[in-house]
Amino acid sequence: MINLKTVFVLALLTTATSVSADEITIDTLDLHATIAADLAEGMEMMQNNLNEDMTNMLIATEQVAETTASVTRSE
Q1: How far apart are CA 9 and CA 17, in angstroms?
Q2: DSSP 26
Q3: pTM for the whole structure
Q4: Residues 48, 50, 55, 56, CA torsion sign
Q5: Cα(69)–Cα(58) distance, rounded to whole angstroms?
Q6: How many whole angstroms separate alpha carbon 52 and alpha carbon 61?
């Protein structure tokens, strides 16, 4: 026999299910576009930073090589 608590729980579950079904409908196109734009911007910034770091390392290596060559010649 179904009592009042069972009817109440069934009504509550039915309501909760229909509410959550409405909330699941999310427009992901704007979210996808935003994430893609942020990712592209971040990757470009990382590429620029990497290029700057590599340039600085190459310049430092060349300066060390020139200094070593100068010291060797002066001896």
Answers
A1: 12
A2: -
A3: 0.49
A4: positive
A5: 16
A6: 14
